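Hey L., structure's done. Input below.
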Amino acid sequence: MARRRRALLLASLLLGGCASVQDATGVATQQDLLQLRTDVTLVQQRAQRALGEAEAALAQAQRRDRDTEAERRLAALTQRVDALTASLTTLAGQLDEINGKLEALSRQPRAVAPPPATPSRPSGAAPAAPASPAPPPVGSRPTTNTLQPQDIYQAAYLDFSKGSYALAIAGFREFLRRFPDQALAGAAQYWIGEAHFSLARGYANAGQTPQANEALEQAMQEFRKVLANYPRSDKAPASLYKEALVLLELNQPAVAQQRLQYLVETFPQSEEAALARERLSALRPR
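Output:
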């Protein structure tokens, strides 16, 4: 059991290390850290569950004079914990590699581009119009070391659009941690709710009802934060509507009707208000 506890300690140290270096580099390396943080959290949770089950199986085996079935279960759980320990070791190596990159980047002086040469022009000729800056590539991650709010937001939204919901949630939370008063903060909070809602659908399709309900509850809380913290956000009507949909999924139609009615009364001109009226018409008894 000491070996398993050391694995959990390694996971906690990995999480602490990720949080301490994420301000030192650009989005590309930051996203690697966010992915590691998500992976380590999942492995840590699995290791904790496996450790608890292993300890329970060991206690059961001791009570039953090392019953054969209990021994079999204990051996299987031991193999699971060993596999999780190996995963944590691999993640530790990846984190060490990223830390090395961070240290190398921090030691490199930032190159300053020389000013563009001014072409000569004939005397009396009109000056040439300045060239328009090239637009940034659409859909690519920003790689500049000077992180702007839009950089982090775009990276998180790109993860969401690719279905990497856990990574998107981590990215949007990082955006809110850095820029809680930025104009896109309400939208970032909304997409956190949408990511949890999407996770809930995935769990439901896989027949994992407890996980689906847990994700729905989390989505409801995240949608409510939009109106509570960013009432003037453009995403406020959408968050109310999605909250009502989550409540319907959780078999709470009465509360869902209240939220839909509130949406209609508070944002009567919004597109979501029209959708809310249709939902209310379908929910009300005929």
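The chain has two domains: 2-106, 149-283. The chain has a mean pLDDT of 74.

-- N.
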